[in-house]
Amino acid sequence: NAGVTQTPKFQVLKTGQSMTLQCAQDMNHNSMYWYRQDPGMGLRLIYYSASEGTTDKGEVPNGYNVSRLNKREFSLRLESAAPSQTSVYFCASSEAGGGDEQYFGPGTRLTVT
Amino acid sequence: QKEVEQNSGPLSVPEGAIASLNCTYSDRGSQSFFWYRQYSGKSPELIMFIYSNGDKEDGRFTAQLNKASQYVSLLIRDSQPSDSATYLCAVLSSNDYKLSFGAGTTVTVRA
Predict the structure, then answer these.
(1) Strand ranges for A2-107 from DSSP E
(2) Residue B103 near chain A (CB below 8 Å)
(3) Which residue is closest to B32 within chain A, CA to CA?
(4) Per residue of chain B (111 residues), what is the pLDDT tens digit?
(5) Disulfide check for B101: which of A6, A42, A89, B36 has CB 3.0–4.6 Å away?
């Protein structure tokens, strides 16, 4: 079992460029999440998907869109990258939502210049 | 006021000592509390969860919860250099069942 995988591991974008971060899990989990982590601010929820076919906004959704492609995959899209989106992005999954243990992917380090 | 606040650290303790990490939260209705450990450059991993007031022990780790004071703590006994990491407190919101994370406390165990 690979657990939660993310691609790419590193990315540098110029302001205004777009990109999609990919996430996949092989644990048959229903819920998936996208977080960003910035120094001194902990993890902040961007979007989450409680189950296949549903998505909902988290604490910091502006500038992002998501797609729950199927039960395994949950992608995060930056339509027009801004320097404020420079961060480490983590995808996570859990069997159900709420208080279930979340399993995190290895992260994507994104720099927007 | 941030929803989840942790003592800022960094916390440096000698090997074999007890490391004490504190966390306060603002959502009085929260019922579920978690501690995640994150090694430098790695992703977070769950080490403890606690739902009831009092203490919960798992090996060298003890989580303590006081809902009346809106306070949760993590004690690491007999600290080892391998415990050097950032510890994230997470609280499950009572209204939308999403996790809110604190900024983390970085612990360094000196050999």
Answers:
(1) 4-7, 10-13, 19-25, 31-38, 42-49, 56-57, 64-68, 74-78, 87-94, 103-104
(2) yes
(3) A99
(4) 568 999 878 999 999 999 999 999 999 989 899 999 999 999 999 999 999 999 999 999 999 999 999 999 999 999 999 999 999 999 998 877 789 999 999 999 998
(5) A42
